[in-house]
Specification:
Length: 734
């Protein structure tokens, strides 16, 4: 607060003269009483008269008082404290859990952020993990003995904390974020920071670069469907971090297990290489669905975290060969590569190829193999021979209405699979009211036509986890030459790949859906033969991986219409750890009704019990990690052979963090930079307190109040005048 004059400013010398004159006037005004009064009474009356006259005279110069425009505690400050699973790590400066270091930084009675900012800001305190909780009221008495914050677990969803800051109408002018940044949603966190609208001051909790000794399975790559009796390969990528040089010279082991039995193992010395790729093999002896485990064991060490040493992958072992019908509309490099692939590279497939060899609008098709098929007049009897149909560069008007209806029923009723491979000519000639349009995963009304422009497909997060692209999505870097611009997928379908974002709109170019009892997949881009380049020595090309996994996915040999009715689930979307109810009908599967029947998920299994009517078996099974999961059932059929069933369930966002608990300084710096805030390590937390004080000073503009307009000023004048009158009366001068 400051005092000033709004009227004419008098020189200091003149002010001194005026003040002296006032005292002189007051003194001489009481001179006749000087001899009758004690000196102190005479002085008191003279001073009161002088002050009164000075206050009255000051009105001529318009006295004013300058104050801040913001009353105390009117500026909102929100402090977010990470209470996720990783905040239990003990790598803070004080060698205590990270959350206790955050607690000290915020609540220390002498130097904590609350103690520093409480006089300037209205401080609110919130803790967050996968959700946000306001604990301001609970933490008022933070100085009490035994006060402790508790890490509730879950994942570090920074975006959940920051998103409300961008909502209009709030009085929050700044936020402080205390976290290790070991988040499961970096992109979402940055997006929320950009929309926050207020500076976010970030304090990183934990030591940069610190990591406990940890061996983990990064990725498991294998065919999701394999043929009974053929050797199948599993490639695992493992990583070793935080081990000493001596520990890295010890022998490590990677095992492939099924129900605890070791199928194959490899031993090696990591040396000075942190990541290793290991190939394991197995030869399936029974058909069905199986959960294989890949487990890495480091040499003798004190590894503290072992939950990431194992990764599970679900594989369908197919008893019979897949029967594939491939119909192509023209000779092309794509056709040449694809038919060679079918003939030479997939021993578990039996195929029929129909290729149009005519010209112009002549739709005469000839068989490329001598199997007696000479036309594409499809009927249920012909289609019953196949598990999957691949439609290449072909127009839908080449099929009769009865053929299209048979193709529709092949998917919806029988449980077959169809891949629309040559969509550049298929979509543009397809009517939206055609029965076959129901099989497409995209909304035909949003198809804008053909775009002939090279692009690299962008794999979506769902696509990277999906059986069609799983294990090689990160190497799909070859260009397509064009695509049909489909803007939107149908509800319930899964978008696996989009255009690369070079345009204002990302279009759907690879999608799939479950329709009735079957599955369909649409690739509305061309060509794929450029993917024939080997991923690396000894590994199949992306072309082989894509078509092998795509055909096996839609063919769902383990999951045909009979199986679909035999093994069902009550819902297809759940959160991690939630349960799904499953029902198995032995009579529909041709299996013995005796049981027992056991259902399996990624990390849970349950024995099904007979229902009340005794014809089916029911049970509840817990789901596993986030992503697309397979629930499987293994039974013995009436012939004594093992058969399996599966159901795909989408598991939502994980409630638990990954095992990478390192301080994410880069991300936290970006969050602070995006918002105009400041990043500091836990050792530099004092910089944040100083920055908050500077911010409060910049946000409080001075406001000048003219005392002529203030009733308080006149009350003071009257008080001095009244006090003089009281003293004069008390001294018997009135």
């Amino acid at each position: 607060m400051g005092f000033s004059f709004l009227g004419p400013v008098i020189p200091p010398a003149l002010a001194i003269v005026i003040i002296a004159a006032l005292f002189g006037f007051s003194f001489f005004g009481f001179r006749k009483l000087a001899r009758a009064l004690p000196l102190r009474r005479f002085a008191a009356l003279a001073i009161l008269r002088s002050v009164f006259l000075a206050l009255v005279l000051a009105l001529l110069f318009q006295p004013a008082v300058t104050t801040s425009d913001a009353p105390k505690n009117s500026l909102g400050l929100t402090v977010f404290i990470d209470a996720s699973q990783s905040m239990l790590e003990t790598d803070s400066v004080s060698r205590t859990p990270r959350i206790n270091m955050a607690e000290k930084i915020v609540f220390d009675s002498n130097s904590g952020l609350v103690a520093t900012a409480i006089d300037t800001f209205d401080v609110r305190t919130k803790i967050f993990a996968d959700s946000v909780t306001d604990v301001t009221g609970e933490l008022r008495d933070y100085s009490r003995e035994g006060f402790r914050l508790i890490a509730s677990g879950g994942s570090t969803e920074i975006h959940a904390a920051l998103e409300p800051l961008g909502e209009p109408g709030g009085k929050t002018v700044a936020a402080v974020l205390l976290t290790d940044g070991a988040t499961t949603s970096d992109d979402e966190a940055l997006a929320a920071a950009r929309k926050a609208g207020v500076p976010v001051f970030v304090i990183g909790i934990g030591r940069a670069g610190a990591a406990d000794a940890d061996a983990r399975v990064l990725n498991v790559e294998c065919e999701r469907s394999v043929y009974l009796g053929l050797e199948a390969k599993v490639r695992a990528e493992v990583e070793f971090t935080g081990f000493s040089a001596d520990e890295m010279r010890a022998e490590a082991k990677v095992e492939l297990l099924l129900r605890g039995e070791v199928l194959d193992e490899k031993t090696f010395v990591p040396g000075n290489v942190s990541r290793h790729s290991v190939e394991l093999t197995h030869r399936p002896e029974n058909a069905g669905n199986f959960d294989f485990e890949v487990c890495v064991t480091p040499g003798p060490s004190g590894e503290r975290r072992t939950e990431n040493n194992t990764q599970t992958v679900s594989v369908s072992v197919i008893k019979e060969k897949l029967r594939v019908l491939y119909i192509e509309g023209r000779l092309s490099p794509e056709y040449n590569r694809f038919q060679r692939y079918l003939k030479a590279d997939e021993p578990d497939m039996e195929y029929t190829i129909l290729i149009r060899k005519g010209a112009g609008n002549e739709y005469e098709l000839q068989s490329a193999v001598e199997d007696g098929v000479r036309s594409i007049d499809l009927d249920p009897e012909k289609l019953a021979k196949y598990d999957a149909i691949v439609l290449g560069d072909i127009s839908p008007d080449m099929f009769s209405e009865s053929s299209l209806s048979a193709l529709h029923d092949f998917v919806s009723t029988r449980g077959g699979g169809v891949i629309f491979k040559g969509a550049l000519s298929f979509l543009e000639n397809l009517s939206s009211d055609s029965v076959i349009s129901k099989l497409l995963p995209v909304d035909l009304a949003t198809v804008e036509g053909e775009i002939l422009s090279p692009f690299v497909m962008r794999v979506t997060p769902d696509g990277a986890r999906h059986p069609v692209l799983s294990g090689y999505a990160d190497v799909l870097d070859e260009r397509f030459s064009g695509f049909d611009a489909a803007k939107r997928a149908k509800p319930g379908s899964v978008v696996l790949g989009t255009s690369d974002g070079a345009r204002s709109t990302e279009y759907v170019v690879l999608s799939c859906q479950e329709y009735g009892s079957g599955r369909t997949l649409l690739l509305n881009a061309s060509p794929t033969y450029t993917w024939y380049r080997p991923i690396e020595e000894g590994r199949k090309s992306a072309f082989h991986r894509f078509w092998g996994q795509a055909i096996r996915y839609v063919a769902r040999k383990d999951d045909s219409a009979t199986y679909h009715s035999a093994f069902s689930v009550d819902r297809r979307g759940v959160l991690p750890g939630e349960s799904v109810n499953v029902v198995f009908d032995p009579s529909a599967a041709g299996a013995s009704a005796e049981g027992p029947f056991e259902a399996l998920s990624m990390d849970s299994r349950t024995v099904l019990g007979r229902s009340e009517d005794s014809s089916v078996f029911e049970g509840s099974i817990r789901t596993g990690k986030e992503g697309l999961q397979y629930l499987t059932l293994e039974v013995i059929d009436e012939k004594g052979d093992a058969i399996g069933f599966s159901r795909t369930v989408r598991v939502g966002k994980s409630q638990f963090e990954s095992s990478n608990y390192r301080l994410a300084e880069s991300l936290l710096n970006e969050i602070a930079g995006e918002t105009g805030g400041l990043y500091a390590s836990e050792l530099e937390a004092g910089r944040i307190a100083d920055a908050l004080l500077r911010l409060s000073a910049s946000l409080t503009k001075p406001v000048t109040h003219n005392l002529l307009e203030s009733w308080e000023y006149f009350v003071v004048i009257i008080l001095f005048l009244g006090l003089e009158w009281i003293l004069r009366r008390r001294f018997a001068l009135i």
